Amino acid sequence: MGYVLLFVFFIVICFIFGWNVLGTILVLIVVFVIIALMVSIQKDNEKREEILNKSQELKTKREEDLKTIIIPAYNESRTKLIDKNGRPTKAFILEQYNLNKEIIAFEESKRIWICGRDYQMKSILSCTFTDDVKVIKGQITSTTKTNSGNMVKRAVVGDVLLGGAGAIIGGSTASKSTITMQEDDKIYHDYTVVINVDSLSEPIIRVHVGSDGKTVNEIVGLMNVIINRK
Prior knowledge:
With 230 residues, this protein is of the alpha+beta class. The protein is built from five helices and eleven strands; from the N terminus they run H-H-E-E-E-E-E-E-E-H-H-E-E-E-E-H. A four-stranded antiparallel sheet has the order 1-2-3-4, with no helix packed on it. A three-stranded antiparallel sheet has the order 5-10-11, with helices on one face. Helix 1 runs antiparallel to helix 2 and helix 3 packs antiparallel against helix 4.
C-alpha cells in the first residue's frame, strides 16, 4: 500500500513540475495495470464458476445414475442372490449399493457371499486381519517465561550498590523458565481382513475395511464361528 501511495505522489509531482509527458505515461501505466487486474480477476471468477458448475453437474449426474441405474441394478442382483441362498443371517455393507463390497452369510444354505464371490461355508479355512497403522506426532510448543517478581528486587539492590547501571545489571539476571508442551499423538488405523479359503487359484481374500475396528472384529468373529461349526 505504501508503494502505491508513493507512486501516486510521484505522478502528482510530475504534473506539478510540468513533466506532463512522464505523468501521462505513468497514468496510462496505472490504467493498464488496473485493467489487467480486473481482467485477471474476471477470468479467475469465471474459472471458479466453471469448476463449481462442473462439480454440480457431476453431482447431479451421480444422483441421477444412482436412482435410475445403480440402485435398480443393485436391488436386482441382491434379490437374485437371496432367492438362490435364502434369507441372510448376517450382512456387512462396506460400501452402499455395491454388492462387491458386502459380506453376507446364509446360514440356511450354508453359503457365504464375500465381496462378489459365493462360497460354501466349509471353504473358510482361517481368518485374521492386518492394521496399517500411521502415527502422526503431536505438535511441540515451547513457551519461555521470566520470573519478574525477583527481578524488581535485584534491580533495586543493584541501584543501591552501583547506581543506574546497577539497576540494569541487576534486572538482567532475572530467572527464566521454558515450558515445553506436546499435543497427543494422532493414530490412524487402516484395517484389512484376510480370509483363507479352500481354493488353489485364489486362496487368500483381502477385504479392506478402513478405520472401523468394530466391523473388523465382527467379521473375524463371524468367520471363526463358521470355522468352528465346520
